[in-house]
Design goal:
Blueprint (H helix, E strand, L loop, with lengths): L3 E3 L2 E7 L1 H19 L5 E6 L3 H9 L6 E11 L2 E10 L3 H4 L3 E9 L3 H12 L4 E9 L12 E5 L5 E2 L15 E4 L2
Parallel strand pairs: 3-4, 3-6, 6-7, 7-8
Antiparallel strand pairs: 1-2, 2-10, 4-5, 9-10
Length: about 180
C-alpha cells in the first residue's frame, strides 16, 4: 500500500484488507450469537456499506433478509447537515421486525439518528447498529453502536465502500486523507 490519488486529493494507507475482513468476521459471529432465532431484517445503507454488507452476509449462516436504504448527507469531505432519503422502505417491511442497520461509518451520527426515527415511526420491534467504522470523537447524537468493526479518529477515509465524491469505493484497503 502506498500513497494514492483519488480525484484531487491524496490518501495514505491506513487499514489493510485482511484487518477489515477479520473484523467483519468477528461482527458476523457476534450477530449470529445475539440474533440466531430472530430472523432479522438487515438494512444496508447505500452506497458505502455495500462491501461491508457483502462480506458480512458471506458469514451469516442464519435465517435473515436484506433490504437497502439510501440517505444522502455528504458533499465532498463535509456533511451537508441534511439527510435526504433517496431510497426508503415500505413501513410494512419494518413493522414488528428485528432490524440490524448495516453502515460503513458512523461519525456525527446524523444520518443514523434520522433513520432510527423513521424505523421507530414504522414500528420496528428492535433496532441494532452494525458499523464497519466508528468515529466516537465525532459523535453528536445519543446512539448506541451494537457491533463495531473499528474505532478510528476523525480522519477522512476512503476505500472498501467509502468514497470521496463517489470515487475510491472500489479500493480493497482503507486510506486516510493526506492534509
Amino acid at each position: 500500500m502506498s500513497i494514492i490519488k483519488v480525484s484531487d486529493k491524496e490518501f495514505a494507507p491506513f487499514i489493510p484488507q485482511e484487518k477489515i475482513e477479520n473484523e467483519i468476521h468477528r461482527i458476523a459471529s457476534e450477530i449470529k450469537r445475539d440474533m440466531k432465532d430472530m430472523e432479522p431484517l438487515f438494512l444496508v445503507m447505500l452506497n458505502g456499506a455495500f462491501m461491508f454488507a457483502a462480506e458480512l452476509f458471506k458469514n451469516l449462516e442464519m435465517p435473515c433478509e436484506m433490504a437497502f436504504v439510501k440517505y444522502k448527507t455528504y458533499e465532498g469531505t463535509h456533511s451537508t447537515g441534511k439527510a435526504n432519503a433517496l431510497l426508503g422502505l415500505d413501513a410494512e417491511q419494518i413493522k414488528g421486525r428485528n432490524i440490524v442497520i448495516v453502515e460503513d461509518i458512523v461519525d456525527s451520527g446524523f444520518t443514523m439518528s434520522q433513520l432510527l426515527k423513521d424505523l421507530e415511526a414504522d414500528g420496528a420491534k428492535s433496532v441494532r447498529i452494525a458499523t464497519m467504522m466508528f468515529k466516537p470523537k465525532a459523535l453528536k447524537y445519543d446512539l448506541k453502536m451494537d457491533y463495531v468493526g473499528m474505532e478510528i479518529g476523525n480522519d477522512f477515509i476512503v476505500g472498501y465502500g467509502l468514497d470521496y465524491n463517489e470515487y475510491g469505493r472500489n479500493l480493497k484497503e482503507i486510506y486516510k486523507i493526506v492534509e
